[in-house]
Specification:
Elements: H1 7-17, H2 24-34, H3 36-44, H4 56-75, H5 86-107, H6 129-150
Helix pairs in contact: 1-2, 1-5, 1-6, 2-5, 4-5
């Protein structure tokens, strides 16, 4: 995906389905965090862009690091969001990071999501890019409508 925004549609729908259990902020933070890797390599002109962090092993380590950082910041009262809990942040980060690896696996040939078990990307071209984008957009629209109808978003 072109740096994260379409991934947010999946997060909006996940949050709409389970608002108290899935933090949309954590979902988005996980997606931005994981995309620091290809941004770094893109800026340096080094390929491949998707490396360790775009594997399920890397995403799991990012999840643990991000959850630790959240707890550290929470103890220092850096968050003014009482709705953020360890559980819903963990769920949001998990869904955000793992769905990111899954969605990117379908479209990026330089990904090895199951490293070190598999050295290839079996999901590549599993669905068309148009279907992938449209699925993320539909998820985002449905999630947005659901959140508006529930009153979480005012328009």
């Amino acid at each position: 995906m072109p740096f994260t925004p379409l991934h947010f549609g999946v997060g909006a729908l996940c949050h709409a389905v389970a608002p108290r259990r899935v933090s949309l902020s954590a979902f988005c933070a996980g997606n931005v965090l994981i995309d620091v890797e290809p941004l770094y390599y893109l800026l340096r002109g080094e390929f491949p862009l998707h490396r360790f962090w775009h594997s399920y092993v890397g995403a799991t380590l990012l999840l643990l690091l991000a959850q630790w950082a959240f707890r550290w910041l929470r103890r220092r009262d850096w968050f003014g969001f009482p709705q953020l809990t360890r559980a819903n942040v963990f769920a949001g980060l998990s869904l955000g990071l793992y769905s990111h690896v899954l969605l990117d696996s379908v479209m990026h040939a330089d990904m090895h999501p199951w490293w070190p078990v598999l050295g290839h990307n079996a999901l590549l071209n599993g669905v068309s890019i148009d279907a992938l984008y449209n699925g993320c957009l539909v998820a985002g629209v449905l999630g947005f409508i659901w959140l508006v109808l529930r009153g979480e978003i005012e328009i």
